[in-house]
Amino acid sequence: MSSFVSKFHQYPTNETFSNDFLRQVPKADLHCHLDGCLRPQTLIDLAVQQDVKLPTYDAELLKKEVFKEKYDSLDEYLVCFSYASAVLRTSEALERVAYEQAYDQFHMGVRYFETRFAPQLNTVPGKLSLEDVMLSVDRGSKRAMNEFNAKDQDVVSGLAPPFAYGIIVCAMRYLHIGFLALL
């Protein structure tokens, strides 16, 4: 397990079960927002690449100022989503964040997750269409799925369920190309 995983992926304090045990139990996460799972350093990297202004470019300070443990209001909580929406406007950014979301899910012991987002918030007229957004997220998630399933010996030998994902969007028009959509 990488140092990133051991530091970043911690369950709430539990006197009955250890973090290692909880990570090993296969799980499903049926409600995981793509724009709510950005790693602070990824947000910084993407903001620098795209000239997006952040309150700080220090990951630890960003965690304290934007990605807090507790928020005083819904408005305060939603601020982090405005930064995420600002940087998730390229195919590369969407694919990277989708891959990292799948990576993080896998390393928490999740075997199936459903990522959800509003693709219309990520479009850029003339540059990034709804279809581009959907396909970018799918590419990142699929790359992670294929990588993890090929490397995990328990999956390869049939001792563990394979890692898989679903995409939940608020755009019914993409149902015909294989995306699960909810209104």
From TrEMBL:
Key word Zinc present: yes
Cofactor(s) of this protein: Zn(2+)
One Pfam family in the UniProt entry: A_deaminase
GO biological process: adenosine catabolic process; hypoxanthine salvage; inosine biosynthetic process; negative regulation of adenosine receptor signaling pathway; purine ribonucleoside salvage
One of the record's GO molecular function terms: adenosine deaminase activity
Domain Adenosine deaminase: 26-151
EC numbers on record: 3.5.4.4
Protein's pathway: Purine metabolism; purine nucleoside salvage
Membrane-spanning ranges: 163-182
Listed GO CC annotations: cytosol; external side of plasma membrane
This protein's UniProt keywords: Hydrolase, Membrane, Metal-binding, Purine salvage, Transmembrane, Transmembrane helix, Zinc
Family, per entry: Belongs to the metallo-dependent hydrolases superfamily. Adenosine and AMP deaminases family.
Protein name (record): adenosine deaminase
Species per Swiss-Prot/TrEMBL record: Peronospora destructor
